[in-house]
Every structure is written in C-alpha cells, then in structure tokens.
C-alpha cells in the first residue's frame, strides 16, 4: 500500500510563519522580513495547503493562530533556532576541513613516505582524521573505484575510467644482499644475476611478487625461492641471515636494510625505476578534507 507523501515544506516559509504569528499581522511581518505583503500571504496559503489545514484566522484586525497553527508555531520556533545555530556553526568553521578521510595505500608507501606526510597534514588540519588501510596496489585501485577509499596511494599503473591520478614519489626497486655476498662488489645488478640466487619473496601472490614472476617468465628463468615472508622487514631479516637476496623498493630498503650488515645495489633494468601515484575517484566537487589530503600528498 502506498502512503501519501508528507507536506513539502521549506525553512523560509516556516520562518515567515513564525514571524507572522509573533507580529499578529501579515503587514507587520512582511515589513520585518522585507517581503511584499502579497508574497507573504501567498507563502502562508501555500503552507496551509501543504499541511492540509488552516493555520491562521484572518481578520481586519490581524491574524490569530488555529490549534494547528499553535503546533506549527511551536515546532517552527525550534526548527528556526536549529537552522540559525547550524548556520552559525558552519560559519564558525570558516571553511576548515573536517571529518574522516579513508586512505588506502600499498606497503612501500606506508613504510617509506606516509608517516611523515600524515603527521604534517594532521598538524595543518587538526579536525581531519585519517583512517589508513594497507593494501596491494590493485586493491587500492578497486577500493577507490568502489568508493570505499577516498584517496589511494600505490604503484603507477594504467588506471580504469573514473579514476584520477597524480605523481606521489619515486621508489625504484633495489637488490638487497647480505654483507660479503659474491655480488656485493658490483655497482648495479642485472635481474639475471638475481635469478641465479635464492630469492626471498615478499607476499607470494602480491603485486610485487607477481611482477617479479612476470619478469622471470619473460627471462625464461624460474625463480629460486629461498623463503616467502609477509613483510619487507621480515625479508631483510632473512637476507641478513644469509638465506638469499631480495628485490624491494628503495623506501623499504632504507627503512630495514640501512646497516652495514646489508648491501643495497640498484637493479639494472629498464623496469626497475618505479613511481608511486595518488589515486582518487573522479568527483566534483570533492569533500574539502579529501581535496586537502590530495593536495598535501601531491605537493
């Protein structure tokens, strides 16, 4: 069963009604609200039509409220106060960004770049909370497309329609070896040399692991798996113990392989230079908090 729609009301008409009830006269209310008496009278008639009952008793001496009018006046006063309070609160914000921004980012962005940038952003926008979720780049893109993430950070890639992207940081792939490794004297290492060594794999089936598998397939050389781990810090511990070598982003190598127990060397391949991008669903306009975070990360 379909129910009839409720009355279509607008705040301005309610405000005019409240003023009319207070003044007891359409003419005086119109003067106070700077509106023509005829226009105010039409507003009152439209309001009565919306409620389906008379709200005012009109006479040459002015207007009086019906029982329904008394109820509308009482509630209208509160609604008008609430709207005025809302207007003051919005004005007091002065256009400040506020709320929660959902940020999805891949592991290397979380480790190498975001902590300091989030700290600086939070200092500039104290009313904005960042909800950070670590995901593979493909999941970052999917979350942005599904509007589960307001902002994403991941490896530069071709983006589907509906997304926008901006350069965030350069994060090339490096080879991390234990101190004293046979390849440690080289200035740079070819991927073929890496494939000749046991490899510490990170997140088997993850974005970086799949990418290296594809490179190995293209080189027609299988990867010799030393061990698979779930994080960059764990991979560096395995390298330190002499279990194998690892191919990881520069940001992770700087965070976890910066001591003398490691050797970090460039990967001498055309595909080794790697960039991270900021991603977001195409929206106009964006929430002020989301736009502020995008601008902070891109700058």
Output the number of helix runs.
12
Poorly predicted runs are none
Rounded to an integer in angstroms, the radius of gyration calculated over CA atoms is 32 Å
Q: Give the second-level CATH assignment, the architecture of the largest domain.
A: 3-Layer(aba) Sandwich
List the helices and strands and how they pair.
Layout: H1 11-23, H2 26-33, H3 37-51, E1 56-59, E2 62-65, H4 67-93, E3 99-105, H5 107-112, H6 114-124, E4 128-134, H7 137-145, E5 151-155, E6 163-170, E7 173-178, H8 191-195, E8 198-202, H9 207-218, E9 224-229, H10 232-240, E10 246-249, H11 250-256, E11 262-266, E12 275-281, H12 288-298
Parallel strand pairs: 3-4, 3-5, 8-9
Antiparallel strand pairs: 1-2, 5-12, 6-12, 7-10, 7-11
Short description:
This protein is α/β, with parallel strands linked by helices and 299 residues long. It has twelve helices and twelve strands.
Please give a handful of descriptors for the protein shown.
rod-shaped; 5-stranded mixed beta sheet; Arc Repressor Mutant, subunit A; D-Maltodextrin-Binding Protein, domain 2; 12 strands; 3 domains; 3-stranded antiparallel beta sheet; 12 helices
Structure notes:
With 299 residues, the protein is of the alpha/beta class. It folds into 3 domains: 83 residues, Arc Repressor Mutant, subunit A (Orthogonal Bundle); 96 residues, Periplasmic binding protein-like II (D-Maltodextrin-Binding Protein, domain 2, 3-Layer(aba) Sandwich), CATH 3.40.190; 94 residues, D-Maltodextrin-Binding Protein, domain 2 (3-Layer(aba) Sandwich), CATH 3.40.190. The protein has 12 helices and 12 strands. Strands 4-3-5-12-6 form a 5-stranded mixed sheet, sandwiched between helices. The longest helix has 27 residues. The model has no long low-confidence stretch (mean pLDDT 91).
